[in-house]
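Chapter summary example.
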Amino acid sequence: MSEHQAGIFDRSYTQHLFLEYALGGGHDKNRIRRALRQALALAGERTPVLVAFGPGLWSRLSSDFDFPAFYLEGQVPATQGDLFVWVQADNRGDLFDTGLAVHRQLRDELALQLEVEAFVYHDLRDLSGFVDGIGNPEGEAARQAAIIPDPHPAAGGSWVLSQKWVHAGLEAFHEMPVADQENVFGRTKADAVEFDDERMPDNAHVGRTDVDRDGVPQKIWRRSVPYGSTTEHGLYFLAFSCELDRFDYLLRRMYGLTEDGVRDRMLDFTHPVTSSWWYAPTREWLAAL
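The structure predicted for these 289 residues follows.
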């Protein structure tokens, strides 16, 4: 059975680097393949390097299937890239060394359009103070949520959604009473307990995104981490899914684009400035580059 790339499910890493590249015209795909092979060879035992492809670059490298560029009816900035690279490490020094070496292998073939260095904040919390990713499934359920099943030609790989969110309203959020903050998220702040159905506000983030569709739970595997400085900070949202359509559906629920028209209250305090989705192929596919 094909194996997914390393690092997707290991949440022990505290340092993260996200690189998004765009591909110019006229590049030879063999040179791109060679650059990718050299970049992937730089991964270490505790510095995994994951790569995923946007639809444009994927179509150059494979004819197995295609997929559309990110788009959400103009509600969200669509900044679809061609190559996504995620480096993880236990310390910032190793992250820098590996990230720099990877970029040097890729820079002649692709143009860097976004670089975000991020970190684990306290006990896996967002800068809002709320624990992030508590809705993640566990064990085999996590794999079922994140890894594409047979008989899809992408089986063994994963669909990936990346978004850089800027928490422009973070100060105003922290000025609210804790009870009001909890209503925004739909769970308690101190111990991350989700509200029951009776207490859950219609526009709470959990209520908008932890849902079923036609009886199927729309679970995804989240690996988001905070980033930033004193002047700009937020969350680099990263998630993996067995179905590309799950990302579209959950974002539509957040932005009030479904039948009920309810908009996620969280959007009053933060907003995305980039959005792309990608396909992360299997280790076997990458080994054959």
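To summarize the output: The chain has a mean pLDDT of 97.
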